[in-house]
Amino acid sequence: MRRLVSACLIGFALGAPARAQGGAPAKVQPRAPAPTTRLLTCPEAIALVKQQGDIVLVPPKGAPERFVRDRSFCAFSEIAELRFLPTRDNPQCPVGYRCREPGFEEWDW
Q: pLDDT tens string for the chain (109 positions)?
């Protein structure tokens, strides 16, 4: 029991935010805004997804979406579905894949 409590305390201590000098919390780096696909060319958008592996892009109309390079970035139960988005030079650019849970009818029984 003592080992379990010690392991938990060490885990919490390692997971706690790092402190700068003076005991103040370290500053969190702000995340860059998600790129808009209307400003990118099709090869640029594809290269960005391939380089990052997992990225959030903003389509011209709609909410930001997560795109992945391949299925290895998806959860075990998800499938990778190819997604097309409009870019500066291509209205149907195959930007990358979207992870999603398959529907019941899609399972190969």
A: 444 444 444 444 444 444 444 555 556 555 666 778 788 899 999 999 999 999 998 888 888 999 999 999 999 999 999 999 999 999 999 999 999 998 887 766 6
What beta strand segments (E) does the chain contain? 54-57, 65-68, 79-85, 93-100
The pTM score is 0.64
| Residue 62 three-state SS | coil
Question: Which uninterrupted H or E stretch holds 13?
Answer: helix 2-15
CA distance 84 to 103: 20
Which amino acid does the sequence have at 27? K
